[in-house]
Amino acid sequence: MAEVINMPRLSDTMEEGTVATWFKKVGDSVKEGDILAEIETDKATMEFEAFYEGELLHIGIDEGQTAPVDTLLAIIGEKGEDISAHLGGTVAPSADETLAPVVVDTLAKESAPALPDNVEVITMPRLSDTMEEGTVASWLKKVGDTVNEGDILAEIETDKATMEFEAFYNGTLLYVGIQEGESAPVDSLLAIIGDKDTNVDEAIAAAIASTSAPAVAVEKKTASAPVASPTAAPPAVKSAPAPVAVQNTSGRVIASPLAKRLAEERGIQLGAVQGSGDGGRIIKRDIENYQASGSVAFAAPQGIESVEEMANSQMRKTIAKRLGASKFTAPHYYLGVEFDMENAMSFREQYNAIPDTKISFNDIVVKATALALKQHPQVNSRWYDDKIVQHHHVHMGVAVAVEDGLVVPVVKFADELALPQIGAQVRDFAGRARDKKLTPAEMDGSTFTISNLGMFGIENFTSIINQPNSAILSVGAIVEKPVVKNGQIVVGHTIKLTLACDHRSVDGATGSLFLQTLKSYIENPITMLV
């Protein structure tokens, strides 16, 4: 049976999503756990994985397109299956598809008890891209309460933040599956909303049988929580009533985390806001609707707001993905040093006095670094899950800024090249990089990387390791400053460098010894020619 996948709600404030990349195309085989697509939300770009097995039969939102939450995203089923019934119009989301970024198995399974009419099953939502389980921090509704669409049901702690979780249905809260303070995996049975006269025991049994996650243990006393008798009035109407301010008699300001954050961003004092939540609790809509009483303290400027939106290029997306993976997988640490550049400046002046010769300080740093790496292969290495590969050749990656981001062409066997050869290669790479003329082979195989922002006046900075390299060197500007030499304060020139290391493959002592060797070459550059 074909499974319909809708645009998921990947954050608590997400109203629409953009498909950045499809990793599967129509006709491809899909296994549970495969990454189907990357989806851009209002907060981040997240990987969206499959929770079914079969063939990708249909893609409803193409790359670069934006669509509201619950719009038909894709259909997975058996090869050759007729899906015309799903394409005749807007596909209505199931309860679970609306509330979580994963699609729960079809509720009407032949082997499962039928879910009563007018009952909606709510599962633990995936409120962040890395969330695997959630903790219910507090319930704002209790069993038997009337729930209107848009009401805040609970506050859920994820691996990143505590978020308000709102209702998407009208009815009565019939059952709470996860108590305050308890944690459960994504897709676990969180709650059931339905008509007051629903048989709660039957609804719970059908809900547990229909969800894809392991059932959360159900206590009989919870299952039989008080609900209205069959003769009670019909369920609440679909339209939610306007929020009504409630007097807070507790003597303290009670506000949801989201309301607190919004108030802080907008400079609103919570004590001046009247809450419309339970017990006078201040919630999101109270902050959004708040208007300060009295006269305006100052006249707002009558300027015109202006923005420009630019779609992210594939280069920018790739840079974001690779650097994000490096920063959050490799345990970075940083070693900062300051070198005396007086001898290097004299050396460069004399070297450039040779006819038809022109070298830069960057060329000196590249050559000195390459020679130092030959003596410290532990730094000139790559980390893999099952091994560390130490290189005895030096392929130096040199970061070059281009309009769309950053590229890293590679100077092969940099330790064996003369200074003018290094300079010529770097200038050639930089020029062709800006014209987008570099080949993939010229950007592959680096064993170490240098990033130099000195020409922009940056004195000190840190870089993210260009994986799978184990380290990267950040080079700042040469600065004229007072220095102490032989007990006297004199005018000198220094440069600051920062070595970022992957602690899995390069220990602190190892990185320090490498920098000592590099210092000897840069402060005495004549030794590079010996």
Main attributes of the structure:
20% helix, 6-stranded mixed beta sheet, elongated, 530 residues, OB fold (Dihydrolipoamide Acetyltransferase, E2P)
Question: Would you summarize the structure shown here?
Answer:
By secondary structure, this protein is an alpha+beta fold. Helices cover 20% and strands 27% of the residues. The radius of gyration is 31 Å and the shape is elongated.
Q: Looking at the structure, what is the overall shape?
A: elongated
Distance between the termini: 74 Å
Q: Please identify the structural class as seen in this structure.
A: alpha+beta
Determine and state the CATH class of the largest domain: Alpha Beta
CATH topology label of the largest domain: Chloramphenicol Acetyltransferase
CATH homologous superfamily caption of the largest domain: Chloramphenicol acetyltransferase-like domain
- Number of continuous helical runs: 10
Mean pLDDT: 81
Could you estimate the helical fraction of the residues in percent? 10-25%
Largest sheet: 6 strands, mixed
Q: How many individual domains?
A: 3
